[in-house]
UniProtKB/TrEMBL annotation:
Keywords per UniProt: Membrane, Transmembrane, Transmembrane helix
Protein's name in the database: Prepilin-type N-terminal cleavage/methylation domain protein
Chain ranges passing through the membrane: 33-55
Origin: domain of life: Bacteria
Length: 334
């Protein structure tokens, strides 16, 4: 580039010496204009590239911050939800309730149930007090503990509501809840209605599932832009699950099967996940009250369609975990 400038200046001096015309002091020659244009180009081009790079970095950082905030909020919600759990299904338990003759939770090809549990919470003004008059008065309404089945899914499809461009769509986490009632409800319920099992472990005897005519409530989206590909970091998920659940000797834990027999637990019994490893739950089958939930987002998918996980962009795939213990003292075996 320096050689080019020297050549242009040499030609300019040669042109000035051989010319007898009078140059106006108020204007610029073509050579001077060309030199100025080249110099401006050499200065502006890298500056423009720098500005574009800064804008792209700002866009990616903004997407990352938003994704991190949403994942943290989703985990806070799950933590609050799960803190009321009286029974959390391990991997084998989820398989049992989704593959039964009359599945207790919805399941289709586009979604995978990851975290499933029974919870108990108190709700006001949901039952009528027997003998109270007038019956339509609010004073005749009382509260009670409601038992509900909750399931969190990892769903991936081309729904334009959540993936407008329909290309390389991210996954999202959805939530399902089915309110149930204890069959021993003192106020009496129609036996054809869905009832709370005598034991939330549906593989146990004397279990009652949902009524034959019951339909599933709609699932609600908890968070979008969850990573969905089979490339993931090299974290030792199996070891992390056991450590987070406080399990020293996995083989010492027995798993009760549908036929009532037992077998030693193995690592797959602890974790419920998909091939993407972007949303998974580790559940301690010994008591079914302790779980670790992990979510990994895809911030880049907010600003580009070809946003796949790679080692050099892992910072834009934030991953967070939380360990929760169910807080209810409700005896599930009574």
């Amino acid at each position: 580039m320096n050689s080019l400038l020297r050549l242009l200046l040499k030609n300019k001096r040669h042109f000035n010496k051989g010319s007898h015309s009078v140059r106006s002091d108020s204007g610029m020659s073509m050579i001077e204009l060309l030199i100025g244009t080249i110099m401006a180009f050499l200065i502006i081009t890298p500056l423009l590239g720098l500005v574009i790079g800064l804008l792209n970095d700002e866009s990616r950082e903004g997407a990352k911050a938003t994704t991190e905030e949403e994942i943290q909020s989703a985990l806070d919600y799950i933590k609050q939800d799960l803190s009321q759990a009286i029974y959390i299904y391990d991997n084998d338990g989820v398989e049992a309730i989704t593959t039964s003759t009359r599945p207790l939770i919805p399941n289709d090809a586009s979604e995978t149930p990851i975290l499933v549990f029974w919870k108990r919470e108190f709700k006001d003004n949901i039952v009528r007090v027997p003998g109270c008059t007038p019956e339509n008065s609010d004073e005749c309404m009382d509260g009670k503990f409601v038992l509900s089945l909750v399931a969190y899914y990892l769903r991936q499809d081309n729904d334009q509501t959540w993936c407008p461009d329909g290309i390389s769509c991210p996954a999202r986490i959805t939530r399902f809840e089915m309110n149930a009632h204890d069959e021993r409800d003192e106020f009496g319920l129609d036996d054809s209605k869905k009832v709370f099992p005598t034991n939330p472990n549906l593989r146990a005897p004397k279990t009652i599932v949902r009524g034959e005519g019951d339909t599933f409530p709609n699932r609600e989206v908890l968070v979008n832009y969850i990573d969905y590909n089979t490339t993931y970091d090299d974290d030792d998920i199996e070891v992390n699950c056991q450590e987070s659940l406080g399990i020293d000797n996995l083989a010492s834990i027995n798993i009760t099967l549908a036929d009532g027999t037992t077998r030693p637990a193995t690592e797959p019994d602890l974790r419920r996940d998909t091939n993407s490893k972007s949303f998974y739950a580790c559940v301690n089958p010994n008591g079914n009250r302790l779980a670790q939930v992990t979510i990994r987002g895809n911030a880049l998918r907010r600003i580009q369609t070809d946003a796949e996980y790679k080692a050099n962009n892992s910072q834009y795939f934030p991953k967070y975990s939380v360990t929760i213990r169910g807080g209810s003292d409700f005896d599930v075996n009574n």
